[in-house]
């Protein structure tokens, strides 16, 4: 049986935007800004054994959070929005769908149409 997926994002607006695109059930946790290693461990504890994906903004705060995950959870798979958009919440839904699809998430096909 394949492990469940856990997606870590910065904020609630990122989570809502991603949920629009996904066509599968995925646990999504918001860090709500800067967090400590201890806080991340608390957030992730209920999801032990899940495949961990990190999708942060392409800005300083996103980079700091991403570095924390790289250091503490080297097995995590990192998803990147383009610097052009800066934030996940400002990334077009089509681009989010493409990013998620490349990471083997199931997405609604209408978001892949050009």
TrEMBL record:
It comes from the Bacteria. Gene3D superfamilies: 3.40.1360.10. Residues 4-85 form the Toprim domain. Transmembrane segments: none annotated. This is Toprim domain-containing protein. It comes from Sporosarcina contaminans. The lineage of its organism: Bacteria, Bacillati, Bacillota, Bacilli, Bacillales.
């Amino acid at each position: 049986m394949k492990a469940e997926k856990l997606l870590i994002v910065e904020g609630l607006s990122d989570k809502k935007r991603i949920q629009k695109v996904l066509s599968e059930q995925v646990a999504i946790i918001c860090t709500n800004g800067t967090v400590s290693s201890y806080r991340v461990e608390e957030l992730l504890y209920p999801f032990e054994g899940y495949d961990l994906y990190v999708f942060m903004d392409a800005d300083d705060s996103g980079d700091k959070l991403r570095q924390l995950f790289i250091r503490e959870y080297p097995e995590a798979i990192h998803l990147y929005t383009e610097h052009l958009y800066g934030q996940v919440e400002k990334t077009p839904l089509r681009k989010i769908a493409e990013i998620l699809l490349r990471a083997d998430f199931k997405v609604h096909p209408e978001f892949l149409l050009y």
